[in-house]
Write a structure and sequence with these properties.
Number of helices: 10
Structural class: alpha+beta
Number of strands: 9
Largest sheet: 3 strands, antiparallel
Distance between the termini: 46 Å
Helix content: 25-40%
Radius of gyration: 19 Å
Bound molecules: iron/sulfur cluster
Order of helices and strands: EEHHEEEEHEEEHHHHHHH
Length: 247
């Protein structure tokens, strides 16, 4: 019997394939997708959510996130902490919908698509898309079709995807494939650089750690004032620190 590559409710889409879907406040399943879910959040998700909530990254992580060590011994995974109510609700779901809609995580934006990202043997980042057809979601019965590209653009993913690809470039780095196991200190550095973004910025400003030594005082101030630029710097610096510093 031929092996099924994906679960029954998941189907890989061809890059140019369109799909039928629309979500709006009038669907009978409104908000059903915001409960009982494992929602991994990326560094750029944290950047957007902490701004939306007026929190520092550390405050956001303490209040809304769960950090799990990957079973593979790789870098930690960060999830949005669901409420302890009877339905495992997302802390941001309300009767009127998502209360952080403008800054919702990439996985929420992409749904019902899933974006699988992998690094090829030559180091290139490639993507595949799958369509989820979960029984509770009625959006696939709505009369609207769109391409993957249009959907991603409409959902604001053009800002998220490049940052999320950089996560993959680290967690699927060649050194890891060749057997490197991150030490506990490296796992903590991953969290401190990419997730505790304000703390990372402060360590650069105060010259409290090795990051930022290549920057002038003015460059440091400009970097820390621009959260996206700071995160981009964090990815670059961390990659160098983890894989090219001989450590
Ligand atoms: S249509 Fe799907 S995505 Fe939209 S509210 Fe219903 S379950 Fe959620
Ligand atoms: S962040 Fe918003 S869209 Fe995502 S699960 Fe929570 S309430 Fe739903």
């Amino acid at each position: 019997m031929k092996e099924r590559p994906f679960p029954r409710q998941v189907r890989q889409l061809a890059p140019d394939e369109s799909f039928q879907f629309r979500c709006h406040a009038g669907v009978p399943c409104f908000n059903e997708c915001c409960r009982l879910l494992e929602l991994a959040i990326s560094p750029y998700d944290v950047l957007r959510l902490k701004h939306a909530l007026g929190l520092t990254a550390r405050q956001f992580l303490n209040q809304y996130a769960v950090v799990e060590q990957a079973a593979t011994g790789g870098f930690p995974l960060v999830y949005l902490a669901m409420l302890g109510d009877s339905r495992g609700s997302c802390p941001f779901v309300a009767e009127q919908g998502c209360t952080v809609y403008e800054d919702r995580p990439a996985a929420c934006r992409a749904y019902p698509l899933g974006r699988g990202t992998f690094r090829t043997a030559s180091g290139e980042i490639q993507n595949i898309h799958v369509l989820l057809a979960e029984p509770h979601c009625q959006g696939g019965h709505e009369d609207q079709r769109q391409s993957i590209d249009c959907w991603e653009t409409e959902q604001g993913l053009d800002l998220y995807n490049p940052f999320n690809d950089q996560v993959v470039a680290i967690v699927q780095h060649d050194r890891l494939r060749q057997g490197m196991k991150p030490s506990e200190a490296q796992r903590q550095l991953y969290l401190a650089t990419l997730y505790d973004q304000d703390g990372f910025g402060q360590s650069i400003l105060q010259a409290a750690g090795p990051a930022g030594q290549d920057l002038s005082a003015l460059e440091k101030q400009a970097l820390v004032a621009d959260s996206s630029a700071l995160l981009a710097y964090g990815f670059k610096w961390l990659t160098q620190e983890l894989f090219n510093s001989g450590g």
